[in-house]
Every structure is written in C-alpha cells, then in structure tokens.
Write a structure and sequence with these properties.
This protein has 220 residues and is an alpha/beta fold. It has three domains: 10-75, Histidine-containing Protein, Chain: A (2-Layer Sandwich); 83-148, Histidine-containing Protein, Chain: A; 154-219, 2-Layer Sandwich (Histidine-containing Protein, Chain: A), CATH 3.30.1340. It is built from six helices and twelve strands. The strands form three sheets. Strands 1, 2, 3 and 4 form a four-stranded mixed β-sheet that branches. Strands 5, 6, 7 and 8 form a four-stranded mixed β-sheet that branches. Helix 1 (10-23) crosses helix 2 (50-62). The longest helix is centred in the N-terminal third of the chain and has 14 residues, at 10-23. The radius of gyration is 19 Å and the shape is flat.
C-alpha cells in the first residue's frame, strides 16, 4: 500500500508560516509579511534585532511543504551602536562562552555586519560562535567564515555519520545515502519534510572533522 504525497497550496503554506511565526517566542508576527509562490516563502518587514530576523527564517523553514525561504526582513536597531562598540561586545561575549576558544576567533564589524573567521575543531563551536553574536544589540547580520580542522579519515567519517543517522529518531536513515570526499560529507536521498532534511545535515555536521556538508537530499 502506498501513501499519496500531500500537495499543499501556497495559500495553505502562507497560513501555516504565519501561524508558526505567532508561535515562535521573541517574534512579533505583525511585524513580518509572508508571501509564498511555488513553495518558496518570502519574508519582509522590519525588526529591531538580527536575532528576530534569524528566528523568523528558522520558523518558516520548519513548516512542512516549504522548499526555500528568501529572508528580506530589514534590521533597524533602536538607536545607533558603533562598529567599535559591537566589536568589543562580540569579543567579550565570545570570551564569556566556556565552550569556545575565543582566542582562535577573529571578529570584524562593518556597518553592523559581523564577520567571524578562524579555525576550530568542531561544528558545534562554529554554530555557537554565531549564536552568541546573533544575540548582540546592534548586529545587523553575521557572516560565519570559521573553518574546521579535519580530524579523521573519509571512511571513518562515513561510518560515524551513517551510524548517527540510524540512531536518530528524527531521521529515516533508509532513505539517505552518505558519501565522504576528504572532509566533505555529501548527503543524498529523499525525506518527508524540511525538518528531517535539516536534521540529517545537522547530524552529518556533528561528525568530528567534517568541514563541509553538501546536502542534496530532496523532499517527497
């Protein structure tokens, strides 16, 4: 017995994205406009922090049936904060995070946009560094250019990722194949939702030594 794929209209997706935005803490859904065409969501509006812009994008991606998100939300902070002040706050915040080797991360700020560079050992550290910066007042965007050190052979990495996918309760590992070229993981196959696709990618990034993930997984 086969199950037919549920095709959702753009109007249904728009309603669900708006509902997800209302559900997301820290976001005023009334500040954000939502348009949908062929499954692609475009977010517009003005918010006072980059964190709100990022959370809105994440909320839209969680909706089943959404194929992509164009985030055109504008960040307009209340008052002005100089790049020097933002840079000092960023360095301070990174030092206060015990999970980060702050001395290995370089911070550059240009008109409120923060660029992070450096070399770390773990993907979670790269993500954590960006998360710390997203929360700072005055930040209008983040470019995370931190690179990762390769720590294992391709065959070891492939097995670690495959085993982790099998263990995950949120991913159907049978529908996913894993290739590793050097320190780059390539994911292929089909899954039922964007959230499952994202979870598979997150799982691959957790493998120590993976420095890039090419997520070619598509939706049913």
């Amino acid at each position: 017995m086969t199950t037919a794929t549920l095709i959702r209209t753009d109007h249904e997706l728009q309603k669900d994205v708006l509902a997800e935005l209302r559900w997301e803490q820290g976001i005023e859904a009334s500040e954000i406009g939502v348009a949908v065409k062929d499954g692609v969501v475009t977010l517009t509006g003005k918010v006072d922090t980059y964190l709100k812009k990022w959370r809105a994008e994440e909320a839209a991606h969680r909706v089943n049936g959404v194929t992509a998100v164009a985030n055109d939300i504008e960040v307009r902070t209340i008052g002005e904060r100089t790049d020097t002040d933002i840079a000092a706050a960023a360095v301070h915040a990174l030092k206060w995070d015990a999970s980060l080797p702050a001395d290995k991360i370089q911070v550059t700020v240009d008109k409120g946009w923060v660029t992070l560079k450096g070399e770390l050992e773990w993907q979670y550290q790269k993500q954590e560094a960006e998360r710390v910066i997203r929360r700072l007042w005055g930040v209008k965007g983040v470019s995370n250019l931190i690179t990762l050190k390769p720590l294992a052979s391709p065959s070891d990495l492939k097995k670690k990722i495959e085993d982790a996918l099998v263990r995950s309760a949120q991913v159907d590992a049978k529908g996913i194949t894993v290739e590793v070229q050097g320190s780059k993981a390539i994911l292929k196959g089909k899954v039922r939702s964007w959230a499952e696709r994202q979870e598979a990618e997150r799982t691959a990034w957790l493998a120590p030594g993976i420095i890039a993930v090419d997520n070619q997984i598509t939706l049913f």
